[in-house]
Amino acid sequence: MQGNVSIAGRDVIQIADFDADQIRLILNTAVELKAVLKRSIKKLPSLRGKAIVNLFFEPSTRTRSSFELAGKYLGADVISLNASTSSVVKGESIRDTLLTIESMAVDAMIIRHKSEGVPQFAAKVVKPVIINAGDGCHAHPSQALLDLLTIHQLKAPLDQINQLKIAIIGDILHSRVARSDIEIFKKFGADIHIAAPPTLLPRFADGSITVHDHVEDAIRDADVVIVLRLQLERMQAGLIPSEDEYSRFFGLDAQRLKLAKPDALVMHPGPQNNGLEISFDVNYSEQSAIRTQVNNGLAVRMALLLLTLSGEKVVL
Asked: pTM, whole model, 2 decimals?
């Protein structure tokens, strides 16, 4: 453990609920756990006897599979429930679903839902630890943690994040990742710049964030460029003229990337729409940290489960 800092028994709903020392604890634990992922046998006994349920009401590949593997690598029993095959389709309320799962003596629920506030609601209704795996356009705390870990490992120590310019470009309005990233980067003093079409800019932008009309201005001299997926499934018609026009004016390609610092990192929470918000050559370039993000996501989610369910140090 890191001094007296602990998040044992805590719900993980949004980044705003955690201070900088708690975030450092999570990231330091994740770094230790990355060593486990390099082993031929990755199992640890840390959460043996614990039961974890993944409850996903939205499609997911990276988040769902990494939380499932994270629990299993730590020795917990993990099951994943898909809302499309659960009693929710028969009319069961979310409250009753949560109470039913709680009655099975589970220790944690990992929840993703299309509506904002469902994980907060769950934390009030049931006693197991609740971890928000993404709720609507509100928050995605584990993604923000893995993004900060990636920047920390590849760009700067945490106490030097305040020297970095971080550009976030794309569909910010519908992005829970953008909201959580901005919250965590603010805590460490980064210079945050955002760019999006006016119809895709959020109301939460304030004086601590520099807002640009042109993506080139946001990217210029950036140390990190985070590209967001165009979330067509959440959009109302008319927010962008066309996908081609969006790509032409706001997509990240090799030419635009030259405006950033030569060693700038390119990040993306996934899944990537290659050729739309990010070009193939940038996605697979040496500057891309997208695969590192996936690896760090597993380590961060292991750290969250370990620290909330046991509060113990890593047993290597």
From this structure: 0.94
Q: Is 119 helix (H, G, I), strand (E, B) or coil?
A: helix
Looking only at the bridges linking them, the beta strands covering 129-135 and 77-82 are: unpaired
Residue 289 domain-assigned?
yes
Is 63 domain-assigned?
yes
| Closest C-alpha among 258, 118, 244, 267 to residue 178 | 267
Helix (H) or strand (E) holding 22, with range, is helix 20-37
- CA-to-CA distance for 87 and 308, rounded, in angstroms? 28
Instruction: Give the pLDDT confidence of 141-179 residue by residue, as tens digits.
Output: 999 999 999 999 999 999 999 999 999 999 999 999 999
* Distance from C-alpha of 82 to C-alpha of 115, rounded to nearest angstrom: 16
Here the CATH number for the domain that contains residue 64 is: 3.40.50.1370
Q: What is the pLDDT of residues 304-314, one digit of tens each?
A: 999 999 977 66
- DSSP state letter for 124: H
In a domain, 185, yes or no: yes
Calculate ∠ Cα 73-78-79, nearest 5°.
145
